[in-house]
Amino acid sequence: MTIETAALMFKTTVEKYGDRTAMRKKEYGLWRDISWNEYYEQARAVGAALISMGLEAGECVSIIGDNCPEWVIIDMGVQCAGGVAVGVYSTNAWPQVEYVISNSDSKFFFVENEEQLDKWLQFRDNVPCLKKVIVWDLEGLRHFEDEMVMTFDALLEMGRKTYQKDPGPFDTRMRQVTPEDVSMLIYTSGTTGPPKGAMLTHRNLMWMGQAITRENPMSDQDEVLSFLPLCHVFEQLFSVMGHITHGYTVNFIENLDTVTDNMIEVSPTVGYAVPRIWEKYLSAVYIRMSDATWFKKLVFGLALKIGKKRATLMMNFKPVPFALEMLYKLAHFAVFRKLKERMGFDRMRIAYSGAAPISPDVLHFFQSIGVNLIEGYGQTEDTGVTCVSRVGRVKFGTVGPPITGTEVKIAEDGEILVKSPSVFKGYYKNPEATAETIKDGWLYSGDVGQID
Fold this sequence. Notes:
4-stranded mixed β-sheet
């Protein structure tokens, strides 16, 4: 049976894994585990509380903050309650935050901390649709009082009591969610005007949760590190969609300054980042080698030469001679193995680069040292992925074939057109832009490409 709503998929995964670790977060120097049961119990409390405070099915709830368990707990709580989760970039200035809250007609607003709460205080009188603002990190806010503001802990307590007293409203709402209901709004950067809210349905998300792992499989034994913005579809693919579909473990970074340290500690089995991050790792290797002894430089140079020769053959789909493969194994044992350990890539089975084109040199380097870095292509409007390379079949200058179930064709003017179950429902309150983007079932991407 195909499960086509996030609420049902979440509940099914929780029933399967129970007390197994779903998420980890590093706090005060220690990693804290959160089980699937805890995840569900808190999400249910969020959903029950929101319903009791007047959240109707199909209404929006906005979330602003850095990656943490609370973010995804709120996200799933909203979706299970039949609501629409709307992520806001934590780096946005208050006018941009106001635009998203106002445009989405959000009824509730979850904020991480004092910094994010201050943004709401700048425009509170301009968004009368908001019923409540909920804060989860109270540092600096212990004595703050406002009738519009409540703490996340108080909301959880309210939700638990509400559900205990009468589980009916939440359970019914969760059952009533349909595959065609909008589950999240993702605001795309407005290059030609204000940002537009892309409506992704439960069917879009659940289909993509399965599709991204069809060619490059993931299992419940995998671990990922969550550090890209959760309001971006790329992070949602792994921290929410793939997570509730496959039951692996999501590890949240302490903060953006500790990404490299946390990467080493966790050593994820599946990696993903935007090209800029992969470029930073590459630069760090060369900076470190510039300070090395002449002997280390010599050994690294020889090993990299062997690795690049092998990677070039593989990326052009040519056989690797036995002697070169043996030399590579020696180079891996002597050099690359230690190098990957120092970066936290030693367990990484597969790594993805997306959201922007990556330099072939960067791709070539990681393939050379034995990191299976592959490139994907997609956009928010087709739930993040259109094409992705397969492990062992990465070709320079291409983004791989379309994922299974997706059709791609090139229009006469070179524009990439996409037809897939992942194509979004349209732009929120913007039928004109929707009509320009979806024509006869095809998504007009706005990107130019060619088929190899």
